[in-house]
Amino acid sequence: MIIFFVQAPNRKFAQMLSSLGVRNILSSYLYSTNIRHFEDRLQDPEFNLMIDSGAFTIQNTKTPVKLDNYICFCQRLLSKCRCNVIFVNLDVIPGKSRFRYPIKEEGEKSAKEGWNNYMTMLEAKLPVLHVYHQGEPLEYLERMCQYSNYLGISASSAGNWKQALAWTDTVFSWLHSNCKSLPRTHYFGVTKPDVLMGYPFYSVDSSTWMAGNRFGRVMNLNTNCQSLQGRKYRDLIKQKKRKDICYLPDAMYRTKINITQMLKLENFITQLWEKRGIVW
Fold first, then answer.
1. What is the four-CA torsion angle of 158, 209, 168, 270, rounded to 10 degrees?
2. Positive or negative, the Cα torsion across 127, 121, 81, 209?
3. Contact 39/63 with Cβ under 8 angstroms?
4. Residue 128: which of 89, 180, 178, 170 has the closest Cα?
């Protein structure tokens, strides 16, 4: 299993990711200037880069993104890369707010709009990851399987974990019943060990590694890697302004611990699923 580390906030952290052996980065089109922090790695064939369209931010901030502009950006970046790169479709998240579940009509509307964007990006000869959202008709999951063996899955943030996992159960039940071989799946925004142990995801992404910088917390995997808990380490956030924290030596130390823990989790989950017969 692959964990994509959400983009580094500055060059120091990007260099730390590289020095500790992180080969998978997720960056956002809306913050594309951050790509310059690891631009030298774009020539590394073993480096994996995922570019997110920023759909979640678009829903929250109502920031418009033009598909043509996004496609042009993707094409320019692709022309520079020797690394493995995939672009998340400019998908449309169902509903007007992330705090409530979409109604049926909203799910159908977003699925149709997102699918049209997906077709346009494929016509532009781009490697695209389309996303199936909670609340969208099941027929769109079926369509995705006909076009690709790498699917994005995104549970709604409106409910609780129990509801999100019940929906995820439905998705994987359908995949197991209707696909000759299980497609690769990317689950957005989750690195909870119990979730990763329960589903054979090909990849996930998370910004948890930055918790030491943002919240003064270090992550700690227990002996069986069944939980990833954050604890305070010198609560400097109360003493310093947040913008200063990222340049403090202790913030760098906390971040190094968190990166190491996330890599440990990645290795553990990969070996776990290999023992269960899932090898990507």
1. 180
2. negative
3. no
4. 89
